[in-house]
Specification:
Elements lengths: L7 H11 L1 H12 L1
Length: 32
């Protein structure tokens, strides 16, 4: 599973590190 450096999952990881409180609701909305 090769991923580009600017792939969504990589972006999510960076965001979760910088803005964990911001990513929480985002993930929730995406799951529902």
């Amino acid at each position: 599973d090769l991923q580009a450096p600017d792939s969504p999952s990589q972006l999510y990881k960076k965001l979760s590190l910088c803005f964990p409180s911001l990513l929480q609701p985002l993930m929730y909305e995406r799951d529902v």
